[in-house]
């Protein structure tokens, strides 16, 4: 088991080497064998190496995050955490809502170790595959089993240990014929007593780095559906509407210490990466799906505790298309989804693009 000091040293050496090759020709970079890069990456984290760090889950960070999400109460209706967050921090012992753990154990690198696009390069493969994109994953809450006599949640005021290990690195060929690497990472979170509270598997796609000196074409925005078309499409679903602005995305980046420039640097997002605007963070869409599920579960008085603390057993999710600032979109769940053992949720833009798909499994 290794600490993050060793990982930082390896990352610093890797980043220095990558920067020294940054001005190599595109043709030279394309000679890189994806399988060889994947093998080298797996070798770097061979033998199941586990990296650990511990952190106090402080109340103010959670308070600011929930307010950023426009949720003044962490657990609406709950006797445990009913205080309005504009007036007071959550008290010690308050459980962390599903997927809100993203605001803890944030990247901790010096500026020179970050990638050219601002991303944390701790688990980056070698050049040219350094352009990271978030693809999806799964999250489980083994400590929330209602059949257990004692539950184990991530809680405000507890000192939690995160362990991280590399699971896989597989070369793939995209539809456009270019190569990419699909990387899987697993994070476990244990409370101060050693209980496993949360299991988080994340999948990242690494594509070839872009050349900032070569402007990228910006895709044309599709036409949005009319209100009548949206209502017809979503009939029979529970609907929650969003339209994220730059201020909310800035606060999200700040609270998660996420330096990825596509979320706040519009010239980079549009001119270098070819997006229409800055991009909504993937975890925001995952949390929107989970918040809808738990709100409906509470509203329908389902599950253990009813209006108390509700967690799913697991969520599997996959990001399929970007969501952009200033563009409306909806989170959809079937009307009876909260009562099902498994329910599908979707994030769908008003131009009818499916941006994320998820399956929430309950404890029922």
Automatic annotation (TrEMBL):
<dbReference type="GO" id="GO:0005739">
    <property type="term" value="C:mitochondrion"/>
</dbReference>
<protein>
    <recommendedName>
        <fullName>N-terminal of MaoC-like dehydratase domain-containing protein</fullName>
    </recommendedName>
</protein>
<dbReference type="InterPro" id="IPR052741">
    <property type="entry name" value="Mitochondrial_HTD2"/>
</dbReference>
<feature type="compositionally biased region" description="Low complexity">
    <location>
        <begin position="13"/>
        <end position="27"/>
    </location>
</feature>
<feature type="region of interest" description="Disordered">
    <location>
        <begin position="1"/>
        <end position="28"/>
    </location>
</feature>
<dbReference type="InterPro" id="IPR029069">
    <property type="entry name" value="HotDog_dom_sf"/>
</dbReference>
<dbReference type="GO" id="GO:0019171">
    <property type="term" value="F:(3R)-hydroxyacyl-[acyl-carrier-protein] dehydratase activity"/>
</dbReference>
<feature type="region of interest" description="Disordered">
    <location>
        <begin position="211"/>
        <end position="237"/>
    </location>
</feature>
């Amino acid at each position: 088991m290794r600490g993050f000091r060793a990982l930082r040293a390896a990352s610093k050496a890797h980043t220095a080497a990558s920067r020294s090759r940054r001005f190599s020709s595109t043709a030279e970079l394309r000679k890189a064998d994806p399988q060889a890069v994947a093998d080298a990456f797996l070798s770097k984290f061979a033998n199941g190496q586990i990296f650990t760090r511990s952190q106090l889950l402080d109340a103010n960070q959670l308070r600011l995050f929930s307010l950023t999400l426009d949720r003044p109460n962490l657990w609406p209706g709950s006797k445990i955490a009913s205080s309005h967050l504009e007036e007071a921090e959550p008290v010690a012992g308050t459980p962390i809502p599903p997927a809100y753990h993203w605001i803890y154990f944030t990247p901790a690198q010096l500026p020179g170790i970050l990638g050219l696009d601002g991303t944390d390069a701790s688990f980056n493969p070698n050049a040219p595959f350094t352009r990271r994109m978030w693809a999806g994953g799964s999250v489980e809450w083994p400590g929330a089993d209602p059949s257990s006599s004692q539950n184990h949640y991530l809680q405000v005021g507890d000192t939690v240990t995160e362990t991280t290990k590399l699971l896989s690195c597989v070369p793939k060929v995209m539809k456009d014929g270019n190569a990419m690497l699909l990387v899987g990472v697993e994070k476990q979170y244990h409370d101060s007593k050693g209980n496993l509270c949360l299991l988080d598997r994340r999948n990242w796609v690494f594509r070839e780095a872009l050349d900032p000196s070569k402007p990228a074409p910006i895709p044309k925005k599709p036409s949005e559906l009319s209100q009548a078309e949206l209502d017809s499409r979503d009939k029979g679903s529970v609907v929650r509407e969003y339209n994220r602005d730059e201020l909310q995305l800035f606060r999200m980046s700040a609270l998660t210490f996420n330096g990825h420039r596509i979320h706040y640097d519009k010239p980079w997002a549009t001119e270098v990466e070819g997006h229409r605007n800055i991009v909504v963070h993937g975890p925001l869409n995952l949390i929107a799906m989970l918040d809808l599920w738990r709100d409906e579960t509470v509203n329908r008085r389902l599950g253990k505790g009813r209006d108390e603390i509700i967690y799913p057993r697991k969520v599997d999710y996959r990001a399929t298309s970007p969501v952009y600032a200033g563009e409306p979109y909806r989170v959809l769940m079937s009307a009876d989804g909260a009562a099902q053992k498994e329910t599908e949720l979707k994030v769908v833009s008003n131009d009818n693009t499916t941006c994320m798909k998820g399956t929430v499994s309950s404890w029922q």
